[in-house]
Design a protein that fits this description.
Chain lengths: 350, 288, 240
């Protein structure tokens, strides 16, 4: 079963290339500061979309890995002075933590509600802890954790091996865009592989997959770790954009936003959540400039409406609903084709 | 000796605090398996209702014990009719919708009351134990929690309404076939749960400066108290509130309040992992 | 007399105060077709789940051996990897995926990414599912879904097949088809079938083990067992 199957369509390389060209040309017509941030958010959304939409793992604390990536980068770059290793660490540390926590949950057969609660609690612990680390006593190496003020000044991205050649502005924008595209392609590759299909099977029916001989907890831990690394990368890129890291990266608000992006964008797709992240992110930035309409209010209202109006809710059956819809379109087209052929035959006979 | 008395009182206070803020959520989760992530905001609304009423001249005890529950109860009723009732049985969807609701409520309150803290003074003065000064109001909180738990237990165990509620929790179809309308029961249960959350917010109002975002502090603790408590509403809430309250305070006394809180959260993780059915799923089964 | 392929030694499963499986010693040989029957609560499903690794830990004692390998306490997926196909009492398939995709996931584990497609085609034609290969399983009728599930069980080429109530909810025609499929499977694999449906069991005409109150009451060939007075008493109650 090669090519399109399991609800994953083929990659439209034409569209992707066109998009890449557009993104590359963007700096010619606009400033790159905001688009960079939006791209980081899109990457964050991608990491949850992959895990939730295709493996069925709903984490209420995905911000934990975003924040871990951000803090790991900041702490490591203060201590090392050059950015290459910190970036790698910003991938490895969240991945490891996710693997440990994931294993603890999945091998314990925790799922659904309890998974949501546990992941939420992990983020809360990180949030509380980081908020309380003010003062000189709290530091890792040379990096003071800074409590709720965070870590304000750390070396940002530089060309690997050349600590004095900093990457910022438009050049940084390109780095982020490339990361995003690469992450997207890797995600698509995972989904079309046997590993990805197994995850989709697990999302559909864990028990049956187990009965077919698959080590379900191992698969779930693996994807949880991969998506943790991806979120960590987003966090690291965010840190470099913001040039400051505060405990708000671990906030409930951050984790709520990424959930909303995925739901609104369409659970069970990769592109949808990324677009939603850009759209809702822009909305948030625009709203942030005024006080009449509060951002929380708008986001909250959107979330409520989306949950109420999507008829089958956000269980993985949503994905199946889309396929059913797609299939019924196919049947309708076939029926129309058959009717036309029948009419044509009748006319030919006369 | 005095120090021991202080420690005991602080632990009791913490347990009372947890039990109070969890009561509403326990009813709603225990009865209907509804995870209301806007619970913290209901508590917050109770606080604001109390402070607004008190500032308007109403007696503060009346404001917190009568007005706050009524106001938030009405809010709960509206929420149930407009949102929750379409989502029963869909746990994840309820969690998401109520998360949206919590954001909405925070936004609304920020618009109405602004972002600066508001407060009322505690109506009961402090007292002395040996060398230590204790807040007198804390005793009131403990008293309210005790009365509330007893009242809930009595109501669930010995009244007809309580029996119907417990029956619906076991099986809504069975109760329906006996002639009771499960939708009405759910509606009333959610409203009562909201009212209790409002009560908790009202009672806690004099102790903290109130901000629209304060719900976040309550939701996490209430949540883990209820979920690790398990199916039994009273026994579950009390056992985990007791456990967490004691651990939080003991670790706080030994080190810092932050570590106390983290210890409590970490304990919750361990409990969730080891006893997925909650404490009362493993021990104290068949309790109320 | 061939070696036992499935054996339990003093297997006991306790739920609270109830002994659901009472020190059962069970032996199954290569290429047998064995039916487990017994009234409700007799312990046959619990016994079945002890074999599949769905019940283990504190509740169970005794040993389970599969082809001489002790599998007591093994998790389900480890047991399945010994080459065992399991169909549970509650139908369990991937509703949001097509028939072909369901079969592919099963076939892929043993046939590899490249060989899976061929196995899928094979199962589709053997079970006559070709016409609905691209349909989402969730939309199929119950009987078809049961068949798809059996297909997934067969797709990783097990040498031992465990079926829990495969005839549940099937029409007479579908049941006849199922019997033919089981007989065909039996030509190359060993089978255990748990079921209530007496007509189904009688038509399978195999060796039968009768469970009663957690223990084995009687074992023997279908004719003998199904006419045995003690079996009838157990099913119909005293003074039948």
């Amino acid at each position: 079963m090669t090519g399109a199957a399991f609800g994953i369509g083929r990659i439209h390389w034409n569209w992707l290339a066109a998009l890449a060209v557009l993104l590359a040309a963007l700096p010619l017509v606009s400033e790159t500061n905001t688009p960079t941030l939006l791209a980081v958010w899109a990457l964050f959304a991608l990491s949850l979309a992959l895990m939730w939409g295709f493996a069925g793992i709903l984490s209420f604390g995905h911000a934990a890995y975003f924040g871990l990536g951000a803090y790991t980068y900041a702490i490591a770059s203060v201590n090392i002075g050059e950015s290459t290793v910190p970036v790698l660490l910003a991938l490895i540390v969240p991945a490891l933590v996710a693997a440990i926590i994931g294993a603890m949950m999945f091998y314990g057969r925790i799922s659904d509600v309890y998974l949501g609660v546990m992941t939420l609690v992990v983020t809360l612990i990180l949030n509380r802890f980081m908020n309380a680390t003010a003062g000189d006593a709290y530091k890792i190496g040379n990096a003071r954790l800074g409590g709720f003020n965070g870590i304000p000044a750390f070396p940002t991205l530089n060309v690997p091996g050349e600590p004095n050649m900093e990457i910022y502005g438009t050049a940084y924008y390109y780095v982020v865009i490339v990361c995003l595209l690469v992450a997207y392609l890797i995600s698509r590759w995972i989904l079309s592989s046997a590993f990805g299909r197994t995850l989709i099977g697990i999302r559909e029916n864990e028990v049956r997959m187990e009965l077919l001989g698959y080590n379900v907890p191992a698969y779930k831990t693996a994807i949880f770790s991969v998506c943790g690394a991806m979120a960590g990368l987003a966090g690291c890129l965010f840190a470099n954009w913001a040039e400051i890291v505060t405990p708000s990266v671990f906030s409930l608000g951050t984790t709520a936003e990424v959930l909303i992006w995925v739901i609104v964008g369409g659970l069970g797709t990769l592109i949808g959540p990324m677009i939603a992240a850009v759209a809702l992110g822009s909305l948030k930035l625009t709203l942030g400039h005024q006080t009449t309409v509060d951002n929380s209010l708008v986001l909250g209202a959107i979330l409520i409406l989306v949950v109420l109006l999507i008829p089958r809710g956000f269980a993985p059956s949503f994905v199946a609903w889309r396929r059913r819809f797609a299939q019924s379109q196919v049947h309708r087209r076939q029926a129309r084709g058959t009717r036309r052929r029948r009419i044509a035959l009748q006319e030919a006979k006369q | 000796m005095d120090y021991a008395a202080i420690v005991v009182l602080e632990i009791l206070y913490m347990i009372a605090f947890l039990a109070l803020i969890s009561a509403g959520l326990a009813i709603v989760f225990g009865m209907m398996r509804v995870i209301n992530l806007a619970h913290g905001e209901f508590v917050m609304l109770g606080g604001y209702a109390t402070i607004a009423a008190a500032k308007a001249g109403i007696n503060v005890y009346f404001a917190m014990l009568v007005i706050a529950p009524i106001v938030v109860g009405i809010v709960g009723l509206v929420v149930e009719r407009l949102i929750v009732r379409f989502l029963y049985g869909r746990m994840i969807d309820i969690m998401l919708a109520t998360w949206g609701l919590s954001l909405l409520l925070i936004g609304l309150v920020t618009l109405i009351f602004g972002n600066t803290p508001v407060s009322v003074p505690t109506p009961i003065p402090g007292y002395q134990i040996g060398h230590y000064q204790m807040g007198g109001y804390n005793l009131f909180v403990i008293a309210v929690a005790v009365v509330l738990m007893c009242a809930m237990w009595f109501a669930l165990r010995y009244t007809r309404v309580g029996l119907i509620a417990r029956g619906t929790m076991q099986g809504r179809d069975v109760v329906a076939s006996l002639g009771y309308n499960p939708s009405t029961i759910f509606m009333l249960t959610f409203t009562v749960g909201a009212a209790l959350s409002g009560l908790a917010g009202g009672v806690m109002a004099p102790l903290t400066g109130l901000l629209p975002s304060i719900g976040g502090a309550y939701i996490a603790k209430a949540f883990i108290t209820v979920i690790t408590g398990g199916a039994a509403v009273i026994a579950g809430t009390l056992s985990t509130a007791g456990l967490f309250g004691a651990v939080d305070q003991l670790v706080s006394f030994a080190s810092t309040p932050v570590l106390g809180e983290i210890a409590m959260l970490a304990l919750a993780l361990v409990l969730l992992r080891l006893m997925p059915q909650g404490v009362t799923g493993q021990f104290f089964r068949n309790s109320t | 007399m061939s070696e036992p392929v499935v054996e339990t030694q003093e297997l006991a499963v306790r739920f609270g105060g109830v002994l659901a499986v009472d020190h059962v010693n069970f032996v199954l040989r290569e290429r047998e077709l064995r039916c487990l029957i017994g009234p409700n609560g007799a312990g046959k499903s619990t016994f079945f789940k002890s074999l599949t690794g769905q019940i283990r830990g504190a509740n169970a004692s005794g040993r389970v051996l599969i082809r001489g390998q002790e599998t007591t306490g093994w998790s389900t997926h480890q047991i399945v990897r010994l080459g065992i196909g399991i169909k549970t009492q509650v139908p369990s398939v991937m509703n949001g995926l097509t028939v072909a995709e369901n079969l592919w996931l099963s076939a892929r584990r043993t046939a590899g990414h490249d060989g899976a497609d061929a196995v899928v085609e094979e199962i589709l034609s053997e079970l006559e599912l070709g016409g609905i290969a691209r349909r989402l399983v969730g939309e199929l009728a119950h009987g078809q879904r049961q068949l798809v599930e059996i297909g997934t069980v067969l797709a990783n080429k097990p040498w031992l097949v465990l079926l829990d109530e495969p005839a549940a909810g099937l029409t007479n025609v579908e049941t006849e088809r199922l019997i033919a499929i089981i007989k065909r499977i039996n030509q190359s694999a060993t089978l255990i079938v748990v079921d209530h449906d007496m007509h189904f069991v009688r038509t399978l005409d195999s060796l039968i083990t009768v469970f009663h109150q957690g223990a084995i009451l009687l074992e023997g060939h279908a004719e003998k067992v199904l006419t045995d007075p003690s079996v009838r008493e157990v099913y119909l109650g005293n003074r039948a």
